[in-house]
Predict the structure.
Amino acid sequence: MLRGGIIGFGRMGITHCSILNSHPDVRIVSISDTHGLVRKSAQKYLGVAAYEDHDKMLQEMNLQFVVVATPTASHKEMVKVALARKVHVFVEKPFTLNPDESRELVSLAEQATAVNQVGYVIRFNDVFMEVKKLLDMHALGDLVMFKMEMNGPTVLRDTKGNWRSSKGTGGGCLYDFASHAIDLINYLLGPPDRITGTILQSIHSADVEDAVGTTYIYNSGLRGNILVNWSDPSYRKPTHRFEVLGREGKIIADLHAYKVFFRRKPRLNEFSEGWNERYITDFAEPCRFYLRGFEFTRQLDHFVDCMCGRQRCGIASFAQGLETDLVIAHIREDAQNACRN
Amino acid sequence: MLAEIDRIIFGDNQFFGINHMSEEKAQAQAERFKDVHAILKVIDAAYDCGIHAFMFNTHDRVAEICDHFRANPQKYSDLRLYPSMPYAHKYANAVNEKGMIGALSEFLFAGRTVGQAVTTIVRSGRSIVNRDMIEVMKLLVDAEMRMFRGLNVRAVFLQNIVTDLLLGLRAKPIIIEFADHAQSTYGVDAAFNTMNMPRLVDFLEECGIRNPIVCSSINKAGYLMSPSRQEYERTLATKQFRPMAMSVLASGAIPVDEAIDYVCSLPNIQGIVFGASSRTHISETRQMILSRWGTRTVPCTIS
């Protein structure tokens, strides 16, 4: 039985706690949080030990792993403390606010031989796992153009005092929301060779951007756009839409379904020439527990499997979190250069 | 005494752009039902067809629908409601904006006059940050139930995101207190929506909740049935509870007659929740369920 702790018992911390606690090989024995009511409630109703100081929790609770689900600016310090205690670490996305810090953590995790993962949950979505398989098989031929859109109603007014609306704490659409879209493109197509034409636009927030637009350029000839907006009230919940065109066909995908178009009869028997529509119900694998989507369970089960040695640490590792942080840093740099010009 | 559950209950996901299979379909439905009159037209079609039981999420727009019910008591004299709370996205967005404590404060005092808000504070005797979580949960339930005041509520459902969150956390006291609160304040059974039915049924038994109402996705495709369709079938056949089926059509993945054949062939199902957007579909689906279930249901008055 693996003993785990949660650092930061907010919405994501509680979700991870519930999913991990339902795993037969895991027991969440403690949490740490800065808020007294949260600690008191967790202690009283969940029967876990609750700490204000995460390092004290690590010292006293004999943990094998922690989940870090605090605001992004504190990830570096929390992860560092955990790795110093030689525990495995799952950290919420984005990894850190600075690629140099992320690089340091990648190397510390290696030294500690700790299983490490960043919460890029969309990599574990049924549809995008299918899309990844098709792209890895080169099913569309050489890729030419793509478009990654992500929209949601997350911020519909200026909310001062919240870390999500503050500069320097990991607030803003680029870090907190667009990082999912940026990571997904890294996963599906790889990081770009060059970034240009970035726009970071504020809609409601005074200090941070609410929308991100940028252009990716690859040496292979592939070009594409990332268009992300977390202040769009026309959406009920965050929505992803990915479209990629190759010389032999095209894929359009969201979290629930994808369509693939083949210019001629493909080698893959299950598809025919022209449009092929696939819903999640056609290919989703059963999953032991459901909370907010199978991908949330699957990402944590991957983490547990890696800790138990059943799988190699691979999907959404710290090293991949670093790659995404690097792209985010390039996007920010490109936006600043555009302002200067 | 345990209240009898309606055999056929009309669900509301289609009105609010909720479709577990397709974001495009969800968007099209949201556009179609942007006007509350379009929703009421479909509700009336279901009611005229003999479906008088409705499951409603506590979406803001359901408050408008309830106002309409209250304004026309004669027309809806046999109405039976199954609220399902909370509508999670309104909380999720508020938590993003204000943090957990800020969001809780907002919902406790939403739509209240200053006087009512003061009463709430006085009732608890303390500010939100010092409250007990159970007390906060009860206040939230009461806040959500306000929109159904004066209407015939048959059971109070905990929405699946919250049920399954508490299930994973194994938060027994909160589940037990929720059930007690539904019974003592509203005189009805608590009920539970879930995507993890077999595990939940075992857990409710551990909580000491006898013969619970549990509504879960049950469909031939095995969609949204964790851990597996086989486990669901085993639980239905062996456990003592009042199962209800939702997502029987798996958001359109299974042909309707095949889907209804499957769910009606299972043992012990007490009620089926389904949603549809046209009079024809409502009537056809209802007829199909009635014919599979034989004489156990009342006949359709108008079709």
